[in-house]
Every structure is written in structure tokens, then in C-alpha cells.
Amino acid sequence: MSEFIKVTTKSEIPQSSIKEFEVNKVMVAIANLNGEFFAIENTCTHDGGPLGEGEVVDGCCVECPRHGAKFDLKTGGVMNLPATMPVASYEVKVKGEDIFVKV
Q1: Could you read off the pLDDT of 21-60 as tens digits, one per residue?
Q2: Environment class of residue 57 by beta-carbon count within 10 Å: exposed (0-12), middle (13-18) or buried (19+)?
Q3: Are residues 21 and 7 in contact, defined by beta-carbon separation less than 8 angstroms?
Q4: Residues 51-95: pLDDT tens digits?
Q5: How buried is residue 65: exposed, middle or buried, by Cβ count under 10 Å (0-12/13-18/19+)?
Q6: Can you say whether the dihedral through the CA atoms of 80, 81, 85, 87 is positive or negative?
């Protein structure tokens, strides 16, 4: 059964940015969208690019640094080609300054 794991703190992820973390051997990318935190799979479904090294764009998406595929940070859904398959999204809880993720 999955449980929430403390991953980082809010101050480690500035607003409108994204960072990579390992949670129970799963690579995730956590983004800060106006003080709300979202976690998605860190691997682009197009060619395996690290989404946590991408840019937060359009206020709600991450753009893969390799070929520009975009994914919705709230749902993991594909927003444009070349990716055609979504990435997993993970539940996030914030308690005080701490960020927890359930993978």
C-alpha cells in the first residue's frame, strides 16, 4: 500500500518552477504553481527526457527540454506533440513547510 513520503520543503521549489526528486525509487518532478504543488512522472513519454529539467510554461504545463512536448502539471495529460501518451500524476500533501508525495 502506498503512503505519503516527505520529499522536500516548499522553499526548495520556487514559484513557477519544477525540480526532480526520487521517491521510493520512482523519479518524480514536483512543480510549484502559485503556491500549489503538483507531482508527475519525471520521464517524457516521447523519448525519456527529464521533465524536472524542463520549464514551467503557460501557467500549468511543463515543457520537455529535449523536443518541446508539453504536459499538464495537474493531470499529467499531453498538451502537444511530439508526445502522445500522458505521464503519471501523483498525489501531493503539504503540511507546514514540508511536501509529501504518494507514489
Answers
A1: 999 999 999 999 999 999 999 999 999 999 999 999 998 9
A2: middle
A3: yes
A4: 999 999 998 999 999 999 999 999 999 999 999 999 999 999 999
A5: middle
A6: negative
| DSSP type of residue 50 | B
One-letter amino acid for residue 22 of the chain: E
Scan for cell 526528486, then name that residue: 21
Nearest to 30 by CA among 4, 47, 2, 10: 10
> Could you tell me if 21 and 8 are in contact, meaning their C-beta atoms sit under 8 angstroms apart?
yes
DSSP for 24-47 reads TTEEEEEEEETTEEEEEESB-TTT
- Nearest Cα to 31, choosing from 50, 53, 6, 56? 56
